[in-house]
Amino acid sequence: MVILETRNLAKKYGGVEVLNDVNLKVYKGEILGMIGPNGAGKTTLMNLICKLTDITAGEILYKGEIINNKKTYEIAKMGISRTFQVVKPFSGLTVLENVMVGAFYGKKQAKNNAEARQIAMEALQIVGLINEKDKEPSILPIAQRKKLELARALAMDPELLILDEVMAGLNPRELDDIMKEIVLLKERGITIIAIEHVMKVIMGISDRVVVLHLGRLICEGKPAEVCNNSMVIEAYLGSKFAQRGIA
Amino acid sequence: MKKSILLFGIFLIIMLCLPFFVSGYWLRVLTQTFMFAAIATGSNIIIGYTGYPAFGNIAFFGVGAYVTGVLMTKYEISFLATLPFCALSGFIIAVLLGIPLLRLKGHYFAIATIGVMEAIREIVDNMTDITGGGMGLTLPIMEGEPAYIYKFFYYTIMLIMLFSIAVAFIIWRSKFGYALRAIRIDEDAASVMGINTTVYKTLAWALSAALVGIVGGAYAYWLTYIDPHTAFETTYSVKMFAMILLGGATTVLGPMIGAFILELISEIVWSKFIEIHGMILGALIVFIVLFIPKGLFETFKGGFSLRKIIINLKEYRL
Amino acid sequence: MIIVQILINGLLLGGFYAVIGVGFSLIWGVTNIINLAHGAMALLGAYITFFLFQEYGIDPFLSLPFSFLCLFIFGYILQRFLLNLVVRAQIFMLLILTFGIEIFLVNFMTTFFSADFRSITPEYAGTSFVIGDIVIPYIRLAVFAICIFVTFLLSLFLNKTWHGKAIKATSLDLDAAMMVGISPAKIYALTFAIASGIAGVAGSLLPLTQAFSPSIAGSLTLRAFTVSILGGLGRVEGALIGGILLGIAETLSSYFIGESYKNAITLGIMVLVLVIKPTGLLGKKYFAEVKH
Fold it and tell me: In chain A, which residues have their Cβ closer than 8 Å to the Cβ of B194?
């Protein structure tokens, strides 16, 4: 079943076409990896889905319903959560309080402090941040701040989770850690779109991969197929390498 | 937390008993302090909690003052009955203005609210038939002996202050409060979390406007005479802001503490240095911004030390 | 015919507003500081010119460079040693800081110079230039000419000199400017100094056209503010156009609606522009609101 779909999606900033004719399908329960060189438009695409910016043309459908005319917070309540590339924890609130915000206002919509706290503790437990619950986010190392973003998105009880370069800045051990957690999330029935540059992650967790380049989807399929595709290699490394066919 | 509540309780008891021990002069000073504390606490809901610097919130103070003034003089409504109307007018005006103005961020919003204050003042100034215009409005004087009147206003305004603090406290710990704080820190992230930022911001401003309106109403009856310049006094805006800064914008009691400190210092300075009182106020504000920008509460939470002030300086310099 | 007179009055007034506004706009556009003390600083210039005229008989126009210099130095010191300390703090702290400075300055002037309204009437005051029904006082024309001249000079400075370009660079991208060796502290101080100097010049021109006292500081700042919003932050040409627009709007509304709503109209215009086109009638934001 298709949980998210974009049809002829386009985004222009003045004369600059950032996304063009994007037709993306995301299937329920899968982990979809999204790769592409910098500036390809991946984050913009995610911003369009969450309505942090307006589309220029096309449609976005979530569970069969058009969502590009809805407001950001409405989309969040429908079950779409995301993390940000540059983590945005609410400093001034403790780790626990940060996650409680997600519990209150996401799909779950906790009604009081006690309920929110419970949902938040659960989410923190899943990502392994429970011991830091009363700390200030600004003093946490980057890996834990990423986990906080994840916990916060989780507390919203999402059906579709968008991870925007969650792995950036992590060392190999931390990477493995989070990869395991993401797979666990899939097992809970959450569909995941993971934007990543780290190939190990993409190959390791994705069920399918799509490639975005200069605002267009140039390839999709299983991870191994995509990596060997000449257009993809050309996009990343230039035509010389494409001809040689590096795996 | 418990220590704070205990200290506050003691403070409250002292304040309740004071009228029987101090002179009319100090009662007046304290009453004015309660008034500022109420304004600061109420305004902090939009300024400190939500992060929208409503510099011109005194607009609602003035509106409240005139609502009480007009209702009491033209329609002979009793004082206490006018207060809900003060709150309601403040609330409605903030909702109407909030829709266009809360789209503006930071500076722009701050100045727009000053604009609102000035514009409302001018309109009030020109509605001479209803408001008495530049000649002002004289309210009915309360019956009773001076001592009784002093006490009445002392307790009434103190109650209004406590009411504002109660509202602020409830909001702080509620689901609503979490949303406001999220909005202050990062509005985009907040909306992605599912918060309808427009509705919540507007509600925050409307609530602060309602609270400040009530204070304005009490002020009018207390002074028994208001005119556009005293009701929409710009210096009050600055004092309110300085108090919030001084005490701490991200706390419930901060604004009240700031109010007390600033008012008492003001009073001492005024009585000794009448002429340069204004200059000292200005210098004091500069001092606060430079050395204790996060407010006394936050800066000295772990204990007083000079080092903390220096750290502040280092953080914000170019 | 009276409309033409009104329009011309508005134009002349507008030139003055442009000068009051351009400094304010420059500071805001480059350093993101809203200098609520701007009006008060302009008044310092007014007092300088007034006292020079009163005590030494110096012609007001001749006092302009001196006024510029004094306020330039004052502005430099203020920015370099006071404002720079908190420039990276939150916006409303800076707002309060400058407001505190304004309160200090206004009270200072009231205490030492008294709250009386002052003005200057040199011998050539009454003469005017007359075309048909239209009267243009020479003084106002001269003031207007100076305003255009100052705006032109500033524009030249920003576009042709190294320092000017450094100021523009800093406003566009603070980090990039730092990387090429521009010291932001010095640039901010220079910008503030120049803007203050120009405010001083505007203030010096004030006594020639109207009476002044410390109490008008706020309304001067308000005009400066509106001009900046109309013209777009940091844009010199914008300030000129914004000033003229404001001047004309004011004289027109004074004539049709009456004197007493002047402030409300100014504010109404400002709020309207803020809501409909926050980047100003002319412009893009000069200073991208990037948090440091």
Answer: 73, 76-77, 102, 105-107, 109, 156
